Amino acid sequence: MREGAAFAERLTGEMQALQDRATHERHAPDPIEALSSQIGDELIDGAVSVSTLENAVRVLRDGNLKGRAARLRSYVGLKDDGAPQDRLVEAARKTVESCDTLEALVSRLSRPGFAAVFTAHPTFALADNVYRHIVEMATDPAHRLPELKSHRREAAPTLAHEQNLALTAILRGRDALDIFNAAILEHAAKRWPDQIEELNSLDIKTLILATWVGFDTDGRSDIHWWDTLRIRLALKRTQLERLRTQLESLLPHCSQLVARIDVALGAVKEQEAACPDQHSHDASAIAAFAQALVSRREAALISAETLAPLFDEALARIDANQRAALLTARSGFMAHGLGAAHIHTRLNATQIYNVVRHRLGIEDDPTIPSRRRLVLSQINEALESLKAPIPVDFGAVMMEQSSAGRLMMTMAQILKHIDMATPIRFLIAETESGYTLLATLWLARMLGIRDEQIQISPLFETQSALEHGEIILEEAFRSPHWRQYIRNNGRLCLQFGYSDSGRYIGQLAATNLVERLRLRTLALMQKHDMKDIELVLFDTHGESIGRGAHPFSLSDRLSYFSPDHTRGLFAKAGISLREEAAFQGGDGYTLFGTAPLAASTIATLAEHLVRPLSATRDPIYDEPDFSADFFSTIALDMSSLVEDPGYAGLLGAFGPALIDKSGSRPSARQGDGISVTRITHPSQLRAIPNNAILEQLGWWTNVLQGFGTAASRHPETFEKLARSSRRFGLALDFARQAAAHSDIGALRGIVRLLDPGTWLDRAASARNEEQRSQHLVLAHGLEGLEFWRSLPAMFRRIQADNIALESVWSHTLKMSAQERTLHAIRHAVIGQIWLLATRIPYFSPRNDINRETLLRLVLQLEIPAVLKRLSEIFPQSAGIVTDLDFHEPSGPRDDHGFNREHEEIFAPMARLFAVLREISVAVMHANGSFG
């Protein structure tokens, strides 16, 4: 590592010098391109070994990890001069003091004000032990990072592993909530000492946790209904085990309560053990599971309220100094029901249409405006004629062919047999019509789910949905059945997505549309006299700027999604708000990675709930014309770029080859292992890989594109609001972070690598005939891939917008020398892999695979697939022949395998590809998140 450290220091020093030169000299070479060329030459000449290069990457990677851990520490507000528990206690004090009477406090705390939702988005990009070092170092900066060969996962996580990681994070969050709730009870008892009996009836629900890990089936066919039930039973068992542990120290006063919990635990474990799995899910196994679930239903408990009388009995017998511990345990239990967390299910609107089309014969497409009135009329008629629900058993679940029907039946079984009192959120992706909401309501009622048991929530994420969301809601509100459902449920739930909206119209424009839709929802609720209905706003963002998360602090993230202006208007209208935020996958779980981190995160959420609204009107709201023009310009520019063939070419040139698979969700880009389907539009990639590719290419297009054009249209107003508006400033922080991790030279380097002209130039200046021939082969291969047709023009669009931004905004940050060095190394390594590929021996075509096919795949960095096929075509060994008797005189036993090809071409190619992937991890650390 010492040699690698010296080489890394030398390279970053040279990069810094090149950057300084480029700043002061008009015709200085691009720093990344210059250093990349130098590294490539040194590798070819043998002046630098691959081993030294590997170690240099590790040194840069580890430095970035340490910076990432420090930023995580700062992000959640973990400080050296105070314990996070103290922040929880202080937030509890402010919560109590914000209410004039105990009645007001009970009213405030008896309903959730905020929910943290744990999702399984594929951001599990690092090995588990690496995540552990990040969170340990964030908690204790003195934590020592060991020398690790790689930070990558050996394999993508399974759904079961994701569930275990989520549950661990949830339990840390629950522990922090207990500290917060106990402090509330303590402060309330001090403030109202003569109202202890009233306090004994208080269940604190102001902060809750939820999960959709194992319940999100949007775009997935690998999560079966039995997986969902098994995970739900595990959440129930965990909740009961946790309560049992909390009560252990309070015995014998809680002996009857503990005895009932023990009975329930025994029953739940029997049900869990009987649950089908991928190895055993035939009819007999499912019938046995049904028997366990139904017959042990009462013993296992079906409502947390069943334990309420036993809690009351224990409270009457317990000592005064132990009462707070029992009340704290009860609050956490009652707030979450029979599960360690609430659950969210999710699917796609198309899946709803399919089941309704099959069962009701509604064939018209509700997304076609001319047919919408008809389908709305038909679904209202179906709701009107629905008199009694149909019975649901596991035989029906087995036979159901539609994914939406099967999921809704699974929910019905959960609500019947596992927890009937805790409502389930039902999230619908790509909601484009009020028909979607009404059809979902019809399906739920038909299957016997009561209105108060299901929280139907549209997901607004596409540009169309965000722009016309109030029309979608209005279509539903016109239905008396939807209005009655809302009344029965007591809340209107909305979900806002940032990944897809951001990648199609830009993150800044997307957030503006979200805020506008929230205000239009307020007007809609007032129009329909829904002031007594709670509004739930769920922001499904991730941990990166590409997925909507504010880059600098969790506190600012919450303020960014829920600006004071909007919160104030809802408060003035008398509408209760519940805010919810996502913590997505491995990146999101780091905020709960240790007890202190979890406590700091929960403290930040609690502080957000009691933070007083600003009395000063933000000046951005006094400039509506500028706002409309600024954000619409970004949206138009970004959406236009998305349709540019060059942009699809940029994303698809290397595609996911730059990144490891980071979750259990199947990749949208799959092939037979030897062919690659070139994407023709960004929609063919999932949002997170889309963002991760941009991160690796060194240009945050979905944050920066259009920004320069928009700012330059009204530079004076832009500059004024950049200085004076906190709301606008929080948005600009995204651009600051994007600029700090974007370099036009990094993007230019990729475009030039894919340009056959680059390799023709190198052929012209080659030192010898062998190099000249290699460069010509690469030029010919790239000519056939035709990236040169669209990439240069697309790059010029991005470059022009960047020039406009730099001319009008003087506060942009620059990519560090260390991160630029990583991009330079990557470009050099790609070149070395390509050069090695030109040495692949010729072979007879096999199943339409020839040398040119493999070279084309190498140019797209599909190295694992290529090496797998090469190992079959050029076996390293013919196999070992033992001393068996073949009944003839022995022939020669020489092994004529292709050892030399493996040692000189294939193994070095594999090693360099591993370096590429490790560079990707290093860049990810620098950015602080995956995608």
Report on this model:
There is one protein chain. Helix content is 62%, strand content 6%. The longest helix is centred in the first third of the chain and has 33 residues, at 159-191. The two termini are 29 Å apart.
- Helicity, as a percent range: 55-70%
Q: Give the termini separation.
A: 29 Å
Give the low-confidence spans.
669-673
What global shape is seen?
Answer: globular
Assembly type of the shown chains? single chain
Largest sheet: 8 strands, parallel, barrel
Number of strands: 8
Task: Estimate the strand proportion.
Answer: 5-15%
Secondary structure tally, helices: 41
> How are the strands of the biggest sheet laid out side by side?
1-2-3-4-5-6-7-8
* Global Rg: 30 Å
Write the layout of secondary structure elements.
Elements: H1 2-24, H2 31-45, H3 50-75, H4 84-97, H5 102-109, E1 114-119, H6 128-139, H7 159-191, H8 196-200, E2 207-211, H9 225-248, H10 255-274, H11 283-295, H12 308-317, H13 320-336, E3 342-348, H14 349-360, H15 369-385, H16 394-399, H17 403-417, E4 424-429, H18 434-446, E5 454-460, H19 463-477, H20 480-489, E6 491-497, H21 499-505, H22 507-527, E7 534-540, H23 554-561, H24 564-573, E8 577-584, H25 585-589, H26 595-610, H27 624-642, H28 645-654, H29 687-697, H30 701-704, H31 707-713, H32 715-724, H33 726-740, H34 744-753, H35 756-764, H36 769-785, H37 791-808, H38 817-837, H39 851-859, H40 863-873, H41 899-927
Parallel strand pairs: 1-2, 1-8, 2-3, 3-4, 4-5, 5-6, 6-7, 7-8
Helix pairs in contact: 1-2, 1-3, 1-38, 2-38, 3-6, 3-41, 4-7, 4-26, 7-13, 7-26, 9-10, 9-13, 9-17, 10-11, 14-18, 15-18, 18-19, 19-22, 21-22, 22-24, 22-27, 23-26, 27-31, 28-37, 31-37, 32-33, 34-37, 34-38, 35-36, 36-39, 38-41, 40-41
